[in-house]
Amino acid sequence: MRSLKFALGAVGVLLLLLVAVGPARSADPVKIRNAWVAPVSNWASILLEKRDLARHLGKSYVMEPMRYQGTPPMITALANGELEVANLAFSTFALAVQNAGMDDLRIIADEFQDGVRDFHTNEFMVLRDSPVKTIKDLKGRVIATNAAGSAVDIVMRAALRKNGLDDKKDVTWVEVNFPNMRAMLAEKKVDMIPAVLPFSLDPTLRGMSRVLFTQKEAMGQTQMIIWAARSGFLQKNRAAVVDFMEDTLRAVRWYLDPKNHDEAVKIAAQVSKQPPERFKGWLFTRTDYYRDSGMQPNLEAFQANMNLQRDLGLIKAGLDVKKYADLSIVQEAARRLQ
How far apart are CA 154 and CA 160, in angstroms? Predict the structure, then answer.
């Protein structure tokens, strides 16, 4: 009898432990791996530098910044469950949906836009003494790209096709990391490079090169980068993702506030390992890319970017952007900060 009571007591204790452990496990923070390519230009590279603004970090979610050479590899990462939030370009979003079959991919927020009013637009540079004077002169030349199918890659291909050149036959492509673009141009291993922030403001690069064309000239206003996630992840973890977006919006607004400019410059210098002078005159100003303080993407511009790719034969067919947008999460997060 005594052993039976002991056994029942042990079972009772075990049940209590299971009840206690169950909720703890279900309350574990949701892991959100967030992609980035260019330091400072991509929010994920600097969000954790302002942990004091992330009130839900470590509670409902944990965020892990993930570095990629370009946006195309993020498609594979999303497909394999190795990434939760990708900062996809207008080009790679179409590839993810049409080529990778990710019909469940959703646009959830803005990262930055190119060519808005008098804000920054990407530049495509050749050496100052280069014989290349027009886009047509690129025939037979070597062009650097950070990754095939990336945003700047598609901009260059669009510019070539608009000027009667075959982007597959008339030029040679070489993949180069953004930090190494200047050296490749200086050593004449390539004839043209895409110059994106912060690398485009390198005084050495600007001294030795000139702008052949800009992204705004090639594409018009561009919804350059959006945040995207798969709908299954969003539905399963909506509360945690809203918390994450709330913290992100709080940080974004802090960085964009002019009164925080000097501290933001210090953070940028630390993250990029560049001198603060490289950022002081432009970071988060009108000389920078346009960044919406509410992280609301310009879906009309995004649709126009998709249509141009379709018209130039760069994607298989048109894409109805609004069908793939779910801005309810970022909008709910924004309401919390009002």
Answer: 10
